[in-house]
Fold this protein.
Amino acid sequence: MGLHQLPVPYLGAFDDILRLAPATRPTAMPEKPQIADFMALKGQRKIVCLTAYSAPMAHALDPHCDMLLVGDSVAMVIYGMDTTQNADLDMMIRHGEAVMRRRKSSLVVIDLPAGSYESSPAQALASANEIMAKTGADAVKLEGGTDLAPHVKCLVDSGIPVLGHIGLLPQHAVAGAAFRITGRSEGEANQLHKDANAIVEAGVFGIVMEGVIEPVAASIAQSCAVPTIGIGASAVCDGQILVTEDVLGLYDAFTPKFVRKFANLQDDISAAAAGYRAAVIDGSFPTNDHLFWPKKT
Ligand code: KIV
């Protein structure tokens, strides 16, 4: 059975929108978006996703994105930790709340951090319930394929939308080691197909595919019933995601091959700080305009 023929239990509720011919589906995300609005973009236009960890970043990105991911990459990018494995539930909730305060029309998805969901579907449900209740986010994301399908099903059956994540799984990476691209051997390619099949069947509304070689990523994307979001995995995917600080040139610990920097804000920040330093030292800042004076009587 091909991926496209798989039963997709979670899609039951969205049958109406998915039955519409792609050309008649909406192409913009409305305010207070639903999972169905996101799914309806599949086949219409490419889906635009970025990470966000803070309120001002959510405000700046929201008009340009269909989905904001509060990724566990926050541990590395914001806290300077070695791996995403250092993120915990409290961290994800704090940053999730901040992003939710300023989003308007992007779907907000929050990562279940390592250690909060893998041991059983019941553990995954408790953690996902806590995130959803405390943040009001739209969905959670978890990493894994066939092994995690029962966890996905448990969440979806309980009404929690789940975004899957297959391929390179940062929560399983060894600190300091290079991230390993998957799908090179026939065995790995078959496993990736099985992973996608299993979590689609369990009910994910979309799949992040990370670090998967062509043409394996392309063939999964082409046959997948739900939107596929690539990161280092095929332009054929229905959409793309990157870490925002990579896109902005704000994270310099390392830059994966799949990143394109659309700005160099590290340089801009450095230049601004140097200008400030010079102005403080030479006394040109503050001027009288920046100071408070007694009211004239
Ligand atoms: O945590 C994260 O930022 C992610 C994306 C890179 C997909 O999982």
